[in-house]
Design a protein that fits this description.
- The complex is a heterodimer of chains A (about 240) and B (about 220).
- With about 240 residues, chain A is an all-alpha fold.
- Chain A has 11 helices and no strands.
- In chain A, helix 6 (about 125-135) packs parallel to helix 9 and helix 10 (about 205-220) packs antiparallel against helix 11.
- Chain A starts with a helix and ends with a helix.
- With about 220 residues, chain B is mostly helical.
- Chain B has 10 helices and 4 strands; from the N terminus they run H-E-H-H-H-E-E-H-E-H-H-H-H-H.
- The chains are: A mainly alpha (about 240), B mainly alpha (about 220).
- At the A-B interface, helix 1, helix 2, helix 6, helix 8 and helix 9 of A face helix 1, strand 1, helix 2, strand 2 and helix 6 of B.
Chain lengths: ~240, ~220
């Protein structure tokens, strides 16, 4: 009886291990066992789209890593390294964005303005991140001038190349249209949030006037979704 | 001893059965970006959810999103997805449980939540038992809130008559809108940027719901607690 029980246990373990090995083999080799349709599709893709066989170009990363400015103190240098790391990681949910970048120094703001200008136009998420950080931490008229300048840019026409248009599939073209206007929209969404939360900085007549100017520029930006958002903010928050 | 081995054995089997399988030609940077994006999604914690979200995805939680995604997609491969601007697609006649990614997944500078929205939108198209949730043709004319044609501002291509709308809240446009609106509203471990982005991109997807009553019911759902 006892011997039978041991044999059964051994058989059971062997069965579990064999099943595990079988599934491992099946799933880890699935990619190589492509069927005829998949092989044809890959062949067509390679033939039709040369970019698929060329080395991948990452448009969204700056060509050179932005070094910390020499005049930064050690804390600013630490944060500068951090924000470059976050941009490179593409992790938009990095908790440091909310912990470390809510109350930045004026010098740090100034460097972010500079980096915004030096990033490729196609780096929409990175430029948008800077617009978001500044609009969340408005401190002075330079910040308002920076935000105004975002709406004086030439609109980006395509994620592939901001200077030219490209046909896109209507299925998900709306996402592309939102992303090409992301810096302009990010600044407006943050301004709206500041107004909704009653940021006291906008109680000053000077800031009110500057905010009116920012929103006026946004209303003139030649893209309807940006105009619409600016107009909605103006309607909800008469200044 | 017997129990320990049994648990280990079952865990090995379970892990192997759930892992996404990537084709060999998926570049390492695309695979790691996909894994990082899904990793973020799988870690989401939520404080509540709307009724429509509960019906489609369950709670606002990483576990629910992981379960949803892995019950729809088991393989990932590379494809051009039919146009030069696509990020990802599902091609049901080839393999409805396979997600195809394009080089644009890492090449274009979309916010992270926008990439994930595409991935979840496409995974909804993997539901063969629901006919893959095909899109409706957008109405003619298809006008925005200001009475202007819904069209690409730069190419002028109109959406009217294109198979790029839904008249249900449960299709790909509706479900991705519901997903993002709930992340924006209830995600308790998402940062300010992610929540802002989720709200921003949900607005785009909601614009593709062409039935006024459905859109109204969705807006009411987002206000529900």
């Amino acid at each position: 009886m006892r011997n039978n029980s041991v044999v059964l246990k051994i058989l059971f373990f062997t069965g579990v291990l064999l099943l595990g090995a079988l599934l491992f083999f099946k799933y880890s080799h699935r990619g190589t066992s492509t069927n005829a349709v998949e092989k044809n599709e890959v062949a067509v893709s390679l033939k039709d789209n040369k970019s698929e066989v060329q080395p991948l170009t990452i448009l969204s990363e700056p060509k050179e890593v932005e070094k910390a400015p020499a005049q930064f103190n050690s804390e600013e240098q630490r944060k500068w390294g951090m924000i470059q790391e976050i941009m490179k990681s593409k992790n938009d949910n990095d908790p440091r964005l909310d912990k470390e970048f809510r109350d930045m120094t004026l010098a740090f703001h100034a460097e972010l303005f500079h980096q915004y200008q030096t990033l490729p136009m196609e780096s929409r998420n990175e430029r948008g991140l800077i617009a978001f950080l500044i609009a969340r931490d408005i401190k002075n008229s330079q910040d308002m001038e920076f935000l105004k300048s975002i709406y004086n840019e030439k609109p980006c026409m395509s994620l592939n190349d901001c200077t030219t248009t490209s046909e896109s599939d209507p299925h998900l073209a709306g996402i592309d249209q939102t992303s090409v206007n992301y810096p302009q929209l990010a600044a407006l969404y943050q301004i709206e949030k500041q107004l909704n939360s009653g940021n006291k900085i906008f109680e000053s007549n000077d800031f009110k006037d500057q905010l009116r100017q920012v929103l006026a520029h946004a209303s003139q930006f030649p893209v309807p979704m940006v105009q619409k958002k600016a107009d909605a903010i103006k309607a909800a928050h008469p200044l | 001893m017997f129990k320990t081995l049994l648990i280990v054995g079952m865990a090995i089997v379970s892990l192997q059965a759930m892992a996404l399988s990537y084709d060999k030609n998926v570049p390492a940077n695309i695979k790691s970006q996909m894994e990082a994006d899904l990793g973020f999604m799988n870690g989401i914690q939520g404080s509540s959810q709307t009724p429509l979200h509960k019906e489609i995805f369950g709670q606002v939680s990483g576990a629910a999103y992981k379960k949803f995604f892995e019950s729809h997609i088991v393989e990932v491969g590379m494809n051009s997805c039919g146009n030069g601007m696509a990020v990802a697609c599902v091609i049901p006649f080839m393999n409805e449980n396979k997600m195809w990614l394009t080089q644009n997944f890492v090449k274009f500078s979309h916010p992270q939540i926008a990439r994930l929205m595409v991935v979840y939108h496409e995974s909804r198209h993997a539901e063969g038992n629901n006919g893959n949730w095909p899109h409706d043709d957008c109405p003619t004319p298809f006008l925005d809130d200001n009475g202007k044609d819904m069209a690409s501002i730069w190419t002028g291509s109109k959406l009217e008559g294109q198979p790029a709308c839904d008249s249900t809240a449960y299709g790909s446009y509706g479900s991705s809108t519901i997903l993002l609106k709930n992340v924006a509203k209830f995600c308790s471990n998402c940062g300010d940027k992610v929540k802002m982005d989720a709200d921003m991109y949900a607005t785009d997807q909601l614009g593709r719901i062409d039935d006024a009553k459905v859109k109204k019911s969705m807006l009411a759902d987002f206000d529900a607690k």
